[in-house]
Each structure stands twice: as structure tokens, then as C-alpha cells.
Specification:
Blueprint (H helix, E strand, L loop, with lengths): L1 E2 L5 E9 L7 H16 L4 E8 L3 H11 L4 E5 L4 H11 L2 E8 L3 E2 L3 H12 L6 E12 L3 E4 L10 H6 L8 E3 H6 L14 H11 L3 E14 L5 H7 L24 H4 L21 H13 L26 H15 L5 H6 L9 H12 L13 H17 L1
Length: about 400
């Protein structure tokens, strides 16, 4: 492992690179512009390129940015979360901002996120800062609106079924050191290191915050990414026991009897749970225009006028059938005693209406509850093995 000595900074802008080569140009340019904007506002920001088991084109590309002031860390973790942990150990900065090598920040992300972080409170509180909007482009097109974990619109059931926040966040270095990212273990059934980390932050009393008027641009290309590999293999995030268990129904955001019996058509949903209308401020519109000049493919998802070309698929702002099923199980667990997880799952008629993959995810969440000892049957040997490992972790670690 080799690394440059990174000078003391307020914020370290960290880009993870692997085998992107020159295709990471758009990401690095967006980060460089964000660092410059932060510097113009009086924030000491440092651009750091983390090369995790890179190929030669990626090494050469990174070296071309060293003359422009970028620091380089080389490691052989072979894992995205572990590479972030390595960067946290090596850089000298109070705050860390993470960016993947195929994604982009808006130009004022570091400046606005740092301002929000400064106002958030003491360092003892684990605060994580996310953009208000994510524009997904590439082979998949959608908009993801982030919702703060303290917001009345945040839903536990939704978060347990779909990751509510991307990995492109701002967080104190001290908190990454105390709550490191887990290593992905796809062979044993676990992916989504950022989803797992997001849950652990909440379990430790932390908060996921949203920075107004900011947006990120997330590239999704097939199954070549770690996210795509985890989704294709039906992998699940690591369990976080006691995250939401043993709460009364009125303490579960989004879990209500009315919600659990709703149909999935938009006209039957409360306004908070419908697809969010795209009403962007002039600040965000300008950020989109700038981003399109760096990465033209963003215009395939959303125009410079802020008009989406595709209906947003936004798990944070609408109810899915799987979420309704999980919420109905939450209500049953809070009001009735069940001997096994299988009995609890059978209490929801909604479970049988789900696809096998959706049903497996809901059942997996129930199996995580340490109060239940009998594992219900999964939908495939692969998922059965995952459930077994879940139970082993719960019984030996917590």
C-alpha cells in the first residue's frame, strides 16, 4: 500500500477508482470543480484519488491529475467499502466526501454540504449529509429524492427494503473510523455495503440529513458495478439487529393500518407517498446544466430545464407492495405474540401477492429479528444459505 501525505484540510474529496481509466474524467472534473468552489468560499478542500487494485490505464490517468494537486492513495483491498476505510485512515481532514469513479457531484456540493455540517451540532453526534436529489443516468433512468431520517416522511419499512441514501455523502472522518464500512461478501450472501453502513449509523443514534438545493448524478451501467452484481445475485445488506424492533405501531414512521391496506395505485396513496413531482430550484437547474456539459448522457434522464424524460422510479416517495407487506407484519408483531418467524409472516395476506424476490427480501428482514428462532423456508437454496448465515451472525455476534 502506498499513499501521498495529504495536507491538513477541512474536507477531503475522495474518489474511488478501480479500472475506470480515462472514463473517470467526468467524475474527476466534477470533483475538481467542487473543490475549487469550496476553496473560493474559504473551505480548505483536498482532492484524493484512491486506487484500489487499479489497472495500468487507471494508474496513468490518476498520475495525470497529480500535477494538478491531487493526492493519490494506492491499496489492494479489492472492495469498495474497505477502500473508503483506507482513505479515512490516511487523509488528514475533518470531513470526508465520497464519490465513485463513474458518478458526479454538483459544483457547489462541498460548499453547501460543509455549511450544513457546520450548523448541525457537536461532533459527538453522527451526522451524515446527502444531496436532495439524485439523477440516475446511463442504462437506467430515474430520480431518487433523499429523505432525512428525522423527517415524518421517512419510512422504516421502505428503508429496510430499499436503500434510502446513496454512498455519495459527507461525514466526519472520526465517524468513519468508529463506524467503518463493512466489506462486501457476495459469496456468503451480503452486498450493499453503503446500505448496511446507513443502517448501522441509525442504530448508533446517528442522523441522515439532506442538503437543500444539491444534486448528484449516478451512472448505472448493467451489472458490471458492485450494485448491479449484488442486485443480480439477490444479495442482502448485513443485518442490523434491534434497529426497529419492539416499537409500538405509532413509533414506526409510515407503519399504519391504513397504509398496510392501501392499493398501489397513485390515486389511493397519501400525497407524501406518491411519486414526487419534480419542482427544482434555479440553483439545482443550474447544477444540472453544468453537469450536462461535463457528462452529456445526463440529458437522457433529465433536461437542462429540469424536465424528466422518464417517469421517476423513486422508492423514497411512493409505496410498494413489498413495503405494505412488511408494514403489515410490523403491525402484527407489535400487537400479537407469535412463536416463530414463519407464523408471523403468515399473518400477512399481502406476502403471498409478492414476486419471489420481493417476498424473499421481506422474509429475510423478519428473519433478522433475534426474537424468532425458526427460519421460514426461502425461495431458493441461495437465499436459504443467506438466511442461515443471518441467523448465525445474530446468534454469535449480538
Amino acid at each position: 500500500m502506498t499513499y501521498d501525505v495529504v495536507v491538513s484540510a477541512d474536507v477531503a474529496a475522495i474518489i474511488n477508482l478501480h479500472r475506470e481509466g480515462p472514463s473517470a474524467t467526468a467524475s474527476v472534473i466534477s470533483a475538481w470543480r467542487a473543490v475549487s468552489a469550496a476553496a473560493n468560499s474559504g473551505i480548505a478542500a483536498e482532492l484524493v484519488l484512491v486506487l484500489d487494485t487499479p489497472d495500468e490505464p487507471t494508474e496513468q490517468f490518476a498520475e495525470s491529475w497529480r500535477d494538478r494537486g491531487a493526492s493519490i492513495i494506492s491499496c489492494s483491498e479489492g472492495d469498495l467499502g474497505a477502500a473508503r476505510n483506507t482513505a479515512a485512515e490516511q487523509v488528514d481532514a475533518e470531513w470526508l466526501a465520497f464519490l465513485d469513479g463513474d458518478d458526479l457531484w454538483c459544483e457547489d456540493w462541498l460548499m453547501r454540504a460543509h455549511a450544513a455540517a457546520t450548523l448541525a451540532g457537536p461532533s459527538a453526534t453522527i451526522d451524515v449529509f446527502h444531496p436532495a436529489l439524485n439523477v440516475i443516468f446511463g442504462d437506467h433512468h430515474s430520480l431518487l429524492h433523499h429523505v432525512a431520517s428525522t423527517s415524518p416522511d421517512f419510512s422504516w419499512a421502505r428503508f429496510r427494503l430499499h436503500n434510502s441514501w446513496t454512498a455519495l455523502c459527507l461525514v466526519r472522518k472520526a465517524h468513519v473510523l468508529s463506524v467503518p464500512y463493512p466489506r462486501n461478501d457476495l459469496a456468503r450472501g451480503f452486498g450493499f455495503e453503503d446500505w448496511s453502513w446507513n443502517a448501522e449509523i441509525i442504530r448508533r443514534g446517528g442522523r441522515h440529513n439532506v442538503v437543500p438545493d444539491t444534486c448528484h448524478f449516478i451512472k448505472r451501467e448493467g451489472t458490471s458495478t458492485l450494485l448491479g452484481q449484488s442486485q443480480q445475485a439477490l444479495r442482502s445488506p448485513y443485518p442490523t439487529p434491534d434497529l426497529i424492533r419492539h416499537l409500538r405501531p405509532d413509533e414506526l414512521p409510515g407503519a399504519t393500518t391504513e397504509l398496510s391496506t392501501l392499493t398501489t395505485t397513485d390515486e389511493h396513496l397519501p400525497p407524501t407517498y406518491r411519486h414526487a413531482e419534480v419542482a427544482l430550484s434555479e440553483t439545482m437547474l443550474e447544477a444540472i446544466r453544468i453537469a450536462i456539459t461535463i457528462e452529456p448522457r445526463i440529458a437522457e434522464t433529465i433536461t437542462s430545464q429540469g424536465t424528466p424524460r422518464y417517469l421517476p422510479q423513486n422508492f423514497n416517495t411512493h409505496v410498494t407492495a413489498a413495503q405494505r407487506a412488511l408494514e403489515s407484519i410490523d403491525l402484527a408483531a407489535a400487537t400479537t405474540t407469535f412463536a416463530t418467524a414463519a407464523e408471523l409472516c403468515s399473518a400477512s395476506d399481502l406476502l403471498g401477492e409478492l414476486s419471489p424476490s420481493e417476498r424473499a427480501r421481506v422474509v429475510a428482514d423478519v428473519v433478522l429479528d433475534p426474537a424468532y428462532q425458526n427460519k421460514p423456508r426461502g425461495d431458493s437454496p441461495q437465499l436459504d444459505e443467506t438466511f442461515g448465515f443471518y441467523r448465525q451472525l445474530v446468534s454469535t455476534t449480538w
